């Protein structure tokens, strides 16, 4: 099992194969500081090869998910002098883009649980999750253009999540919307009317994840993420090789045997 890094802006708790990763800057509604970006990247790097972690649950403290980028960090970067040709604002923004790419490609199944404000960078983080749940009362939006800036690193992931035409509407109007509209848009996969219902839906989801074979889930996520970038014939060739290996592998043999014996496979956690 991987050693998790020490974090000041995150709370980490592992329950069996589930890592609960909680944004923990409640005084700023969990705004995404550069320190938080670095810590999130460190956590995803630490668990990347850890097959003992099958799912990551992203959540926020204080009743909010994330209010977006930390304006104080932006102001500080603007006041810094560029050294060696580097631009502090560019580095700050690009680091968040690296985080989104790394979170999206994490081999674990990532689950975003969204409450309160889900703005800007928080919205982007929600868009790279594999499954997203929210409270109906949650408030979503891309407010960057109302602040005189652009959703630079977030935009590609939003487009992939909900399509170009809706992304244009949200980004170019600063439209804010609740959890039911987020569900209609495809940002989230389900929503709840109360915190108790949200927790119930999360536990039901995690139970389903626990019943999926860990290695097969990793291979499946890699396959799905390759659809947009790989030539179809090459992708299908690789998929067939992976399938053959899976059928002959321990998980494939155990899964088919368990099915025929009408029992749960060995990886299914209670």
Describe the structure in your own words:
Belongs to the enoyl-CoA hydratase/isomerase family. This is Enoyl-CoA hydratase. GO terms for molecular function: catalytic activity. Residues 250-270 are annotated as: Disordered. InterPro entries: ClpP/crotonase-like_dom_sf, Enoyl-CoA_hydra/iso, Enoyl-CoA_hydra_C, Enoyl-CoA_Hydratase/Isomerase. The two termini are 20 Å apart. A hairpin with a 2-residue loop joins strand 1 (10-15) and strand 2. Helix content is 48%, strand content 15%. The protein is of the alpha/beta class and 270 residues long. Strands 1-2-3-4-6-9 form a six-stranded mixed sheet, with helices on both faces. A three-stranded mixed sheet has the order 5-7-8. The protein has two domains: 10-210, Alpha-Beta Complex (2-enoyl-CoA Hydratase, Chain A, domain 1), CATH 3.90.226.10; 214-260. The protein has helices at 34-47, 71-79, 88-105, 121-127, 155-162, 164-173, 179-185, 195-210, 214-226, 232-248, 250-260, and strands at 10-15, 18-23, 55-60, 109-114, 117-119, 131-135, 139-141, 176-177, 190-192. Helix 9 runs antiparallel to helix 10 (232-248).
CATH class of the largest domain: Alpha Beta
Strand content: 5-15%
Strand order of the largest sheet: 1-2-3-4-6-9
CATH homologous superfamily annotation of the largest domain: 2-enoyl-CoA Hydratase, Chain A, domain 1
- Enumerate how many helices there are, as a single number: 11
Rg of Cα set: 20 Å
- Total number of strands: 9
Our count of domains comes out at 2
Helicity, as a percent range: 40-55%
| Helical/strand content category | alpha/beta
Q: Note the gap between the termini.
A: 20 Å
- Please tell me the CATH architecture of the largest domain by its name: Alpha-Beta Complex
Mean pLDDT: 94
Largest sheet entry? 6 strands, mixed
Series of H and E elements: EEHEHHEEHEEHHEHEHHHH
